[in-house]
Design brief:
heterodimer, A: alpha/beta, Glycerol-3-phosphate (1)-acyltransferase, seven-stranded mixed sheet, 9 strands, globular, B: 12 helices
Chain lengths: ~210, ~325
């Protein structure tokens, strides 16, 4: 209830009026889960913007993969991330030792198997504003484990300008979300990751908004 | 007819900040839109096609714009001021999303948006001094200082200019329309503040439309082909002629001017509207876009709709405020 209220009364006015989000490709949105939504990652706002693309009725199914060491470390932030945003906490390291990719991705995998629409940033981190880094292999592993789950590529523009990494002040700025056609696992992990990355890079070039921002 | 006028008097009794003439003018706008809608929908039935769809999309958007305008004016002066503050916000956002800014401008941009509430509170309180110096002077001095403190000198000049010019057009210039609504019936007995706002908007928007219609029907010689290939000499002169006549006819009804002075103000509006239009066209051409956004269906962005107003509002405001005519 609190989650619904937060999105209906705060996030949506913020995203659509204050920022002015424009969505292209509504027709590609899945009507119900499971689905894996992958997007470029530049700003803390990316997650709530991606959630706003979906109708409010999809909210109960929406989850976002997030680093457990940052977002699930207790206190208000952890409560907010799990109860309001609805994260799937991803543990990257346990007792100082790196976990295998399968172990890291296990919570996302179960969320998909439970029929959730999971938001996933295959770059792994936010990186420099308005720049794309190479996608990591995790996307391919998840797709391989769930070959029937559609992978929805989304290109986000402008959020790195509205709220770049390391800034706390949010500045109004037009934001675009380009939703591409859903892709299904093609049989090989590496080529599939590159295929999705190319799709997002093409959407970015098609958007004509690939200027370097310094 | 007498029944209609009785309704108008009832409306005036109910909303005393509106004069009789203002209520009649609002009714006229609504009647005009009803007729336009009927004709548009009728033609779409007789001759369906892309052209009539575009025309009807535009008419529908006019309903929303006129509805917001009349609605907030009926609600009260404060509602209209808040509405204009929102228009400034959206226009500034469009402008600053269009022109290039740098990553290091981030915090300065935040303070740029902070100018909107200050400017609109100043005018709503009638603080003319703050209204007139806040953006043109204080922001002019402090804005570049804020950027200098960032010590990022590459692109400093263009960032300073882009930010300040955008703020001048979308906040300072547009806020003159909001200031007009606060002017009382001592300055404008026929219509008060709301009458001035309606009069200026009516002339500015009909000037846009007349320039377009004259240009597209009779226009041949292009006036500024490098800036706007659709603007012609006939379009400009025909539009100015229409607006001069319309100014003369409507001035005694809504403004403090008599017929002759109304014609002169209409003449100024004709040229000022054209100026605002081609300045924004130059911005769009430089940035390589056709419209500033697609917020208003069929019209483009907010800036596409208020470009003429950024010039006509200050021009008319000072003629009235300082009593130059």
């Amino acid at each position: 209830m609190l989650r619904w209220l937060f999105f209906a009364a705060f996030v949506r006015p913020l995203v659509f009026l204050f920022l002015g989000l424009k969505v292209r490709g509504y027709e590609h949105l899945p009507i119900q889960g499971p689905a894996l939504v992958v997007a470029n990652h530049n700003s803390h706002l990316d997650t709530v913007v991606l959630m706003s693309i979906f109708p409010l009725s999809s909210l109960p199914d929406l989850r976002a993969a997030a680093a457990a060491d940052y977002w699930a470390s207790g206190g208000f932030k952890a409560w907010f991330a799990s109860k309001i945003i609805g994260i799937v906490p991803v543990v990257r390291k346990r007792d100082g030792a790196k976990l295998s990719a399968q172990e890291v991705l296990e919570p996302i995998d179960s969320a998909l198997k439970a029929g959730r629409i999971v938001i996933f940033f295959p770059e792994g981190t936010r990186g420099e504003p308005e720049r794309l880094q190479d996608f990591k292999v995790g996307l391919g592993i998840l797709a391989k484990e769930n070959p029937l789950v559609p992978v929805l590529p989304v290109y986000l523009y402008g959020l790195g300008k509205a709220l770049p990494r390391g800034e706390a002040l949010l500045v109004p700025q037009f934001v675009d979300a380009f939703v591409g056609a859903p892709a299904l696992f093609t049989g090989e992990v590496g080529p599939f990751v590159r295929h999705v990355q190319t799709t997002i890079e093409e959407m970015r070039e098609g958007a004509g908004r690939d200027e370097v921002w310094e | 007819m007498t029944q209609l006028m009785a309704w108008v008097d009832q409306a005036v009794a109910f909303r005393p900040h509106l004069t009789h003439n203002v209520v009649v003018a609002m009714g006229g706008v609504i009647a005009f839109l009803i007729v336009a809608t009927l004709i548009g929908q009728g033609l779409a039935l007789v001759k369906p096609g892309k052209f009539m769809n575009t025309v009807n999309t535009r008419i529908n958007a006019w309903w929303v714009m006129a509805g917001l305008l009349i609605g907030t004016l009926v609600l009260g002066k404060r509602a209209f001021i808040i509405f204009m503050g929102l228009v400034s916000f959206l226009a500034l956002k469009e402008f600053l999303s269009l022109v290039p800014t740098r990553r290091s401008d981030h915090r300065a941009l935040f303070w740029t948006y902070g100018a909107i509430p200050v400017q609109y509170v100043a005018l709503s309180k009638g603080w003319f001094g703050l209204f007139i110096v806040y953006i043109p002077l204080y922001h002019l001095l402090v804005g570049p200082l804020r950027l200098a403190l960032r010590q990022e000198t590459k692109g400093f000049v263009s960032s300073t200019t882009n930010i300040h010019w955008g703020m001048m057009l979308t906040v300072f210039c547009l806020s003159h329309l909001a200031y007009m609504v606060t002017l009382g019936e001592d300055i404008n007995p026929a219509g008060g503040g709301p009458g001035l706002v309606l009069w200026l908007l009516l002339l500015t928007q009909l000037n846009d439309v007349s320039q377009f219609l004259w240009g597209s029907t009779l226009g041949k010689r292009k006036i500024l082909p490098q800036v706007s290939p659709n603007k012609t000499v006939v379009g400009l002169l025909g539009g100015v002629l229409n607006t001069t006549i319309l100014g003369a006819l409507t001035a005694p009804f809504l403004s403090p001017f008599d017929t002759l002075k109304g014609a002169l103000v209409g003449f100024f509006i004709g040229f000022a509207g054209f100026a605002g239009d081609i300045v924004m066209s130059s911005v769009k051409r430089d940035m390589g876009v056709k419209d500033t956004s697609d917020l208003i269906p069929g019209h483009g962005g907010i800036l596409d709709r208020v470009d003429s107003l950024t010039y006509t509002a200050p021009v008319v405001f000072y003629i009235i405020y300082f009593g130059w005519l």
